[in-house]
Design brief:
The chain is an alpha/beta fold. The chain folds into three domains: 238 residues, P-loop containing nucleotide triphosphate hydrolases (Rossmann fold, 3-Layer(aba) Sandwich); 164 residues, P-loop containing nucleotide triphosphate hydrolases (Rossmann fold, 3-Layer(aba) Sandwich); 60 residues, no CATH class. 32% of the residues lie in helices and 25% in strands. It has 17 helices and 22 strands. The strands form five sheets. The chain has a six-stranded mixed sheet with strand order 6-7-8-3-9-10, with helices on both faces. Helix 6 links the parallel strand 7 and strand 8. Helix 5 packs parallel to helix 6 and helix 14 packs parallel to helix 15. It is globular and about 70 Å long.
Length: 505
């Protein structure tokens, strides 16, 4: 094909890929213009990762072809994909925190003179020009470890841009960001569009899709369901296309489910500099949302409830009785379980099998006279696999090789196996697909229906609004506002999260 001015940046025609006789990508075709942002959505296992790996040269397709600027192009490896203008920015940041912004941007590609000495002034100048071009408020000499997570994500993108790509693939770029940082990143993406960069944007956060993309492509079971202009589809329709069914349960909790029966009462919890004089109650069968921006103290307050952070002062009462929560073992003994926000580093034994992870908190329940009982272990694990609809080959499967959504379900199973009175859930659906998110929402509702209390933190305010009976807001280390369900309003809660209030509630 002769290259013309009208040629698309990228055309994928009939991409197909199978592993061990199982087709994971089936005849997928699409195109991408210069300066266009294409959203790529689908549940875990829909084929998104396989498609991206074909585009970046990590996998070779079994069928179909790729055209770049109208020319059929083979991408046998990642280096060739980079040379043809395709670069991926991964969900897990790959920066060196103790090095400067400039060092990270050009790492592996730092300019040197004829005898191999680094041309420091030259690459700092190049980094400064790259930063200036996109209007980012960072400096080449800044250490990455001193930057916010949002700005680190931008450095990761600049690192990819330094390779002079035409197409950037952004994989879950906001998974660790709060709303302020997301806004900075989206402004940056808008600048990329103005500079004619094309972007494939992958995200489980569907609200982002409608803020940033021009079109969205839906994959399901390895097939392309369709490509839609963002203005011709809404969130409910998008979810229905992704999972092939309606999802009414995903969109809200019935009001009036909680009881006026306190499970936990907190009085004057203080730990400087994180939070001070925090006081609240969570009731039986209630989901209490805790909202606040990064640095508000919400994460540290939740860690204090589980004894990870020691208090300067304050009192806690469980079902009216005073309790000490000085260490995690205290909280566990009192029936408080913590669902950490990072399943990989804080919650799961990734290199161990599923059933071992599920019984980690309940060894006494599945043992007799000090010996583990294989049948009890199997029965308990099978119960949770069915209850949470965990997709796996067997209970002997290594957790690392499960999808993100199924890993998160294993973490939930591990936490609730002890049948706690209260769960502190930190971003329980972060980074998972919409189907797995709905399953976890369902099980949390079932737990509260049975009388359990839940404190829930989420980086998605919409999720708190859909899930919770009440929301309390933290700002500058203080609880400043409280919203019952019948007063939920996104604008009011966002304002409370960002507006200083020295008096508190």
């Amino acid at each position: 094909m002769v290259e013309t001015a009208e040629a698309k940046l990228l055309e994928v025609q009939g991409a197909t890929k199978a592993f061990y006789g199982h087709t994971v990508l089936d005849d997928v075709s699409f195109d991408l213009d210069y300066g266009e942002v294409l959203g790529l959505v689908g549940q875990n296992g829909a084929g998104k990762s396989t498609l991206v790996k074909i585009l970046t040269g990590a996998y070779q397709p079994d069928g179909g072809r790729i055209l770049i600027d109208g020319r059929p192009t083979e991408l046998p490896d990642i280096r060739t994909a980079n040379a043809n203008g395709i670069a991926e920015v991964f969900q897990e940041l790959s920066l060196a925190p103790n090095m400067s912004v400039a060092d990270n941007i050009f790492i592996g590609n730092i300019p040197t003179n004829r005898i191999g000495l680094v041309k420091t002034r030259a690459f700092h100048s190049q980094a400064r020009e790259l930063i200036r071009r996109f209007g980012v408020s960072i400096q080449p000499h800044d250490l990455v470890q001193d930057l916010s997570i949002g700005k680190r994500q931008i450095v990761e993108i600049l690192k990819a841009i330094s390779k002079k790509p035409k197409l950037l693939i952004l994989d879950e770029p906001t998974s660790s960001l709060e709303e302020d940082e997301i806004r900075i990143l989206f402004d940056f993406i808008a600048e990329l569009k103005k500079n004619r960069f094309s972007i494939i944007y992958i995200s489980h956060h569907l609200s982002e899709i409608f803020r940033i993309v021009d079109r969205v492509m839906v994959l399901r079971d390895g097939r392309k369901v369709g490509i839609y202009d963002r203005n011709e589809i809404d969130t409910r329709q998008l979810i229905r296309l992704m999972i092939n069914q309606d999802l009414d349960a995903f969109f809200g909790r019935q009001a009036g489910m909680s009881r006026n029966d306190p499970v936990l009462e907190v009085r004057n919890f203080t730990r400087e500099p994180y939070f001070r004089n925090a006081a609240f109650t969570v009731n039986r069968s209630e989901i209490l949302g805790l909202a606040g921006i990064v640095g508000s103290g919400k994460s540290e307050l939740c860690q204090a409830l589980y004894g990870v952070i020691r208090l300067d002062s304050g009192e806690a009462f469980l079902e009216g009785n005073p309790v000490r929560l000085s260490r995690p073992s205290d909280a566990k003994r009192e029936g408080i379980l913590f669902l950490p926000e990072n399943r990989k580093t804080q919650g799961l034994f990734l290199n161990d099998i599923v059933r071992h992870n599920m019984i980690a908190c309940v060894l006494q329940k599945v043992s007799r006279r000090g010996f583990l009982q294989p049948r009890k272990i199997r029965d308990l694990a099978e119960q949770f696999v069915k209850r949470l609809d965990i997709k796996l080959r067997s209970l002997e499967q290594i957790v690392r090789f499960l999808s993100g959504g199924n890993q998160q379900k294993v973490l939930v199973a591990k936490s609730i196996a002890l049948e706690p009175r209260l769960i502190v859930a930190m971003d329980p659906t972060r980074g998972i697909d919409v189907g797995s998110k709905a399953d976890i929402h369902r099980i949390l509702h079932e737990l509260t229906d049975s009388g359990m209390a839940i404190i829930m933190v989420s980086s998605e305010l919409d999720e708190l609004i859909h899930m919770c009976d009440r929301i309390i807001v933290m700002n500058d280390g203080r609880i400043t506002d409280e919203f019952p369900r019948d007063q939920f309003a996104t604008e009011k809660i966002l304002l409370a999260m960002h507006q200083s209030n020295e008096q508190g509630v």
